[in-house]
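Tokens help. Our protein:
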Amino acid sequence: SIKKIKLIKKSKLEKKLNIKFKNKIALISYHPETLEKTRGQRNFKNFLNAISKLKNYTLVFTKPNADFGYKYIVKKLNNFTKKNKNSFLIKSLGHDQYFSLCRHINLMIGNSSSGIIEIPSFKKPTINIGKRQNGRLKPTSVIDSSHNSKEILNKITLATSNRFLKKSKSMSNPYYQSNTSKKIKNILKKIELKNLIFKVSKKLSK
């Protein structure tokens, strides 16, 4: 999909989003951490504290998904973007605008799977925060960080260094294979479907 889509030019994207981009752009996507509910609010405060130091960036935030704790994140993001003129909160970018923005950013920060699966196709670095994406195969363009503010800033410095950017540009996205849909279809064609086990509904006892 990324290879086929016609990406929007930076100047046109600015008009569509009503944002004047600075030289550096960070895409920030942060969702509730369902495995760390007790520390979720404290972790997010530390995260925003680090992000607030990025004064020379245009900070584009996407809204979180509807997992438990998302209302707290949205409230804090609304307050953050009101206080920081270089930051913008967008409810939904849509398919075309999201991938077009990915093309123009300097890096992605947060705990979204997109930073691991899709952003590497644009040869951009990702700072992956916390444990939400533990267990996923991570491309070499992904740098893990805790919620410690100082560590996050250090990892951002590393990700935007010339050495790491050069490394990111030469990597390949392990999640991409050509003709994936056709390969799936050919495998499904070979599977015997006659003896599928149907689910049986059971009445709950009172």
Summary: The chain is about 40% helix and 15% strand. The CA atoms of residues 46 and 148 lie 6 Å apart. The chain has a mean pLDDT of 91. The first strand starts at residue 24 and ends at 29.
